[in-house]
Amino acid sequence: MTTPRHRKDAHSFNLDGTTASDGTEPGPAEEQGGNASSISEETSHGKIEVSPKTISHIASRATQQSYGVVGLTSRHARPGWAELLRREEEYKGVVVKFSGGRVIIDLYVVIEYGTRISEVARNIMSSVKFAVESALGVPVVQVNVNVQNIRISE
Fold it and tell me: Is 6 helix (H, G, I), strand (E, B) or coil?
C-alpha cells in the first residue's frame, strides 16, 4: 500500500457500485454523452434553459458538503499531484454531459486521508444526484466520482 502523498492511481466509482481503478476516466459517461449544450424546457409562458455551468455549481456545492471531501480538483490534474481548486473555480472539477434530457456528471475530488474512500464516494454520488434532481427536476443517470488524491489534514 502506498502512502497518501505518493498515490499515483485514480479511482472511479459509479452509481451502480462498480469501480474503475485503472487511472482512466470512466467510459460509460463518454459513450452516452449527448451533444446538447444545455437543458431547456418550453412552457406556455416561455423557455427555461439551464447551462452546464449552473449544474456544475449545484454539484460542486453538494460535493463540498459531503463528509470526507477536502475539495475538488481539475479533471486534467495528474493523479497524485492534484491541486485543489479555489472556491470560484470549483465548477472546473465537475464535468456535465447530457443524454436525451438526462444528466451525466463526472466529479474530480480530493478526499481526506483515513476515511473510507468507497463510502465517501457513495455519499457524494447520493448527495449530488439528490441536489441536481431536486433543483432541476431532471433525472441524473450517472454520477462518476474520480478520486484524484487523498490528503492528510494539517
Answer: helix
Whether the CA torsion 26, 31, 36, 42 is positive or negative: it is negative
Global pTM value: 0.70
pLDDT digits (tens, 9 = 90+) for 58-70: 999 999 999 999 9
CA distances from 122 to 1, 7, 9, 35 (A): 22, 21, 19, 28
Q: How far is Cα 121 from Cα 63, in angstroms, rounded to an integer?
A: 10
- Residue 18: how many CB atoms within 10 A of its CB? 10
Map residue 11 onto helix, strand or coil. strand
- Which stretches of 16-80 are DSSP H helices? 27-32, 52-64
Tell me the three cell numbers of residue 147.
Answer: 478520486
Rounded-to-integer distance, Cα 109 and Cα 117, Å: 11
